[in-house]
Amino acid sequence: MLKHLLLVHGMRRGNLNEKLSAFIDDLMSPHETGLSTAFLESEQQNPYIVIERLISEGATHIVITPLLILSASHMKEDAAEIVEHFKWSHPRVQIEVRPTLAHHPLTKEIVKARITAAGNPDEPDTGIVVIAHGNARFPETDEELESFTRAMGMDRGIHPMMLYGNLSFEALLPEISKGYRHLIVVPLFLYDGYLVNKMKERLHGMNLDSSYKVTPSLNFDPLLKRVVMDHMAGRG
Question: What is the residue-averaged pLDDT of the chain?
C-alpha cells in the first residue's frame, strides 16, 4: 500500500506545528485527507512516529515529499537517517524521498511573481536579492541557490545570499547595496515566520547605501500545491 508523507521543519515549542498543519490542509485541499504530515521538530509528530503509524496501517511504500526549500542538513542528514533507520527496522517497506521545493520550476515562478509585485525590477538602479537559510557545513547548498537564481531566466542578475554560511547577506549586502538606489529582497522560505523576522531585524540594523523592500516569502502560495503534487508523483 502506498502512503504519502509531507515533511516539514516545524518547531518543538509553541503551537506553530498546529498552524502549519492547518496551512498545509488548506493548500492541499481536497487531497489533504490522503496525506500525512510529519515535523522534524516535534515530540509527538516526528517522522519516526508517523512512519511507524503508517506501517502499522499497512503501508509498504512510503513517499516522503519535503516541504523544505534547499538540500542542506535536513535532507543530507535527517532524511538520510530516516531512510536508513527504516531500511533496517522494516526492510520490506520501501521509502523514497522526493526533491526539495527549489528543484521545481514553479517555485521559481513564485519568486519571480514576488519580485514583479514589489516594483519594477527592470529599473537599472534596482537590485534583486534572494535570501535563503544556508548552512556553513554544506557549501553545496550555496551552489544550489546560485543555480536556482540563474535558472529564473530574468534579464538582470539576481544576488543569491543566505542567512547563514559563506553567502551571508550581512557580509555581502553592504557592498552590493552600493551599486543600487533600491533593492528588492525576497526571502526564500516556506512562510513568513521566525527566520524571516530575524532576517528583517538584521536588515533593519544594517547601514545600507540603498533603500529596500522585503517581499513576502513563498507563504504557501497556491502554486505550491502543484509543486507538491508533481513531486509526490515523481514529476518536476
Answer: 92
